[in-house]
Amino acid sequence: MLSRAIAQTLLAPAAARARLFAQQVGEIERFMAEHPEERPWTCTRFQGTDGSTIFRGGVGHSLVIDPAGRLWRARSYEDFATTYRFANGSCEIDTLTPRYDQMREYRPRHDGRKPMV
């Protein structure tokens, strides 16, 4: 489902990609909630300091849609400059700044196969 969502997002106009991918992530979340026997699947959304939209998964991978609409495959920890906020005994992400030079860009394939990274 995720590969299909990425492929469909890459075919959309750049300005619509973050919104479209967010909708598709919501569909995956609903599907997985209806099928608890499947492997758990999570996605947390963040706004990058550069205006990007960041989708962080529970297994150490992230997908970033930059302000120009390009999609990037990222590692959730290594590929971001991250600041944290501490309050009431918890530690939460405060800001994420993508390091695109360390990421791999997703590109559409025109032969029907999975998107290229």
Report on this model:
The chain is an alpha+beta fold. The protein has helices at 2-11, 17-34; strands at 43-47, 53-57, 61-65, 71-75, 80-87, 90-98, 104-105. The chain has a 5-stranded antiparallel sheet with strand order 1-2-3-4-7, with helices on one face. A two-stranded antiparallel ribbon has the order 5-6. A hairpin with a 3-residue loop joins strand 2 (53-57) and strand 3. Helix 1 (2-11) packs antiparallel against helix 2. The longest helix is centred in the N-terminal third of the chain and has 18 residues, at 17-34. The chain is globular, with a radius of gyration of 15 Å. The mean pLDDT is 91.
Short synopsis of the structure:
By secondary structure, the protein is α+β, with helices and mostly antiparallel strands.
Helix content: 10-25%
Strand % is 25-35%
What is the helix/strand order? HHEEEEEEE
Number of helices: 2
What would the average pLDDT be, to the nearest integer? Answer: 91
Gross morphology: globular
The count of DSSP E runs of length 2 or more, i.e. the number of strands, is 7
